[in-house]
From TrEMBL:
Organism: Aquipluma nitroreducens
MF annotations from Gene Ontology: oxidoreductase activity
Domain FAD-binding FR-type positions: 1-97
PROSITE patterns in alphabetical order: FAD_FR (PS51384)
Protein name: Ferredoxin--NADP(+) reductase
InterPro entries: Cbr1-like_FAD-bd_dom (IPR008333), FAD-bd_FR_type (IPR017927), Flavoprot_Pyr_Nucl_cyt_Rdtase (IPR001709), FNR_nucleotide-bd (IPR039261), MRET (IPR050415), Riboflavin_synthase-like_b-brl (IPR017938)
Domain of life of the source: Bacteria
Amino acid sequence: MKRQKHIVQKVINLTPETFIIRLDRGDFQFEPGQYVVIRIPDQNKGREYSIYSGINDDYLDFLVREIPEGGFSRYLRHLLPGSELDVEGPKGYFILDEKTRKGHKAMLIATGTGISPFHSYVRSYPDLNFRVLHGVHFADEAYGRESFNPDNYLLCTSRSDGGDYFGRVTYYLKENKIDADTICYLCGNSEMIDEVSTILEKYGLPPENIRTEVFF
């Protein structure tokens, strides 16, 4: 697996818990939806992060949630511009199929930082026929919302009413039927993915129309 060094350009703080770490792009090639393993140079420590930036961006962005007990995410947050990191990859198969890229209707369902691959999708393919359903606790966690067409984006907030819908993504989906021919991409915690998959199956979506990536 290819592993190469990249230089930190900046760290962009979004919330007290979440930030974007931006690296130089170099000659790194990937498909939207893939992930990498970021490692500290000369150490075996590493973590998997989905690529947040698009294929036409001249940098590599990764959306990171700082874990209180996680030394690695804290290490990343406090890196200074010019620091080096090893990037191993790309890896993974959570990529858009040809049918979706050609305009078939798609639903992108995420929780928290699981929005990362979807952000990469829309930055890379601006003409997709999609809707985004993003579940977070509070409205300030609408990471990258400005990159999505506001008519196609719905924010579900479970601990405040500051979003477009007050409640979890599962509540919204139980109240709003999804057409069976929609291709759905799910990224987030395993509990959400299991619950949403069950709801979609009850609406008649075939297994091949439910694509999943367990994010944490």
